[in-house]
Amino acid sequence: VKTSLETLILPAGHAAAEAAARRLAAGGLVAFPTETVYGLGADAGNAAAIAHLYAAKGRPAFNPLIAHVADLAAARAIGRFDARALRLAEAFWPGPLTLVVPKTDGCPVAELATAGLDTVAIRIPAHPVAQAILHAFGGAVVAPSANISGHVSPTLAAHVESDLAGRIDLIVDGGPVEVGVESTIVGCFESPMLLRPGGLSRERIEAVLGVALARPPAEAESDDSQPLAPGMLASHYAPRASVRLDARDVEPGEALLAFGPARLPGLDAASAVMNLSPSGDLDEAAANLFGYLRALDAKGPKAIAVMTIPEQDLGEAINDRLRRAAVAR
Ligand code: TXA
Ligand code: MG
């Protein structure tokens, strides 16, 4: 890994979008905000740039990337959309939804980015900075979350900087992201499948489809060599501290990640307390999740106790990320 790059940080704006497009065209790595989390972009057609991207993140090469495009016409040049996929695209793009569809013949996304699969993951982000960069660049940009592989995803430019400074060319700072968890991934297979819960709730997708989303078979998650949504490895998103879920009390020395009214036994002995949403709002909790996990972890507690979060709306994605963070490494 090259760790001696001079990483430029630019505030979002016209000049930054132009600089980002130039760096991408030259094979560089550019971090930029989307509405879900910050992404680390590379030219989707440039295998060498994509190899650098995997190396910069320390990401296993069997874990494929999402191709980001500006509009549906660009998406349809990459993937084949059946009627159901089209309905989802029209209902939710641009937005926090990724669709996994069969590749087109002559799909311009480099093989390395799709890990040899015959499907491709595609998303049209809604964030104006991401849109400006995609328009200025004029092609597809593959972009995983802009963190070291295994760390929690970045919701601020400062998170990207602390993980990747010296390894990438440019960070475009667009301030805090809005959604705070990664996009929901739907596999457009015979029965549409929820491959990753995320920033668009299952409920909203099912309302448009008129059918329930299938769940991936259990072995897809446990078999790390052949995962169905290969990024869904059990110990993703892990902070350094151990994470204790469904906490009904706080043990001495633990930090507390609270949700809603927090009056737990032992609260006074907590080493730190952050509340994802004192009013119990799941959208607010999702937006705060990764930043608060990073902030609590930075204080070096022996463990982070997490209060129960309802398994509905964005709670499904929040609980998914917390369960992964709780898997001991
Ligand atoms: O919100 C997001 O989705 C962010 C922003 C930057 O767009 N990106 C993101 O990318 O979270 P990443 O690389 O951290 O997660 C992409 C996920 C991985 O779990 C990967 O395995 C899955 O998408 N994926 C990519 N291509 C796939 C495919 N053809 N079939 C199944 N899963 C795929
Ligand atoms: Mg990621």
From TrEMBL:
Q: Does the keyword Transmembrane helix apply?
A: no
Catalytic activity, reaction form:
L-threonine + hydrogencarbonate + ATP = L-threonylcarbamoyladenylate + diphosphate + H2O
Keyword Cytoplasm annotated:
yes
Q: Which residues participate in ATP binding?
A: R59, N63, T119, S145, S153, R196, Y237
* Role according to the record: Required for the formation of a threonylcarbamoyl group on adenosine at position 37 (t(6)A37) in tRNAs that read codons beginning with adenine.
A single GO molecular function, which one? Answer: ATP binding
Q: Which residue intervals define the domain YrdC-like in the entry?
A: 14-200
Q: Name one Pfam family in it.
A: Sua5_C
**Would you tell me the Gene Ontology cellular component terms?**
cytoplasm
Q: What is its EC number?
A: 2.7.7.87
Q: Which InterPro entries does the record cross-reference, listed alphabetically?
A: DHBP_synth_RibB-like_a/b_dom (IPR017945), Sua5-like_dom (IPR006070), Sua5/YwlC_C (IPR038385), Sua5_C (IPR005145), T(6)A37_SUA5 (IPR010923), TC-AMP_synthase_SUA5 (IPR050156)
What PROSITE patterns does the annotation carry? Answer: YRDC (PS51163)
Q: Which residues bind L-threonine?
A: T36, H68, R123, A143, S183
* Matches recorded under SUPFAM superfamilies: YrdC/RibB
The name under which this protein is listed is Threonylcarbamoyl-AMP synthase
Please report which protein family the annotation says this sequence is part of.
Belongs to the SUA5 family.
- Subcellular localization(s) per the UniProt record: Cytoplasm
The alphabetized UniProt keywords are: ATP-binding, Cytoplasm, Nucleotide-binding, Nucleotidyltransferase, Transferase, tRNA processing
- What lineage is this protein's organism placed in? Bacteria, Pseudomonadati, Pseudomonadota, Alphaproteobacteria, Hyphomicrobiales
Name one process (GO BP) from the record.
regulation of translational fidelity
Give the organism the record lists. Bradyrhizobium hipponense
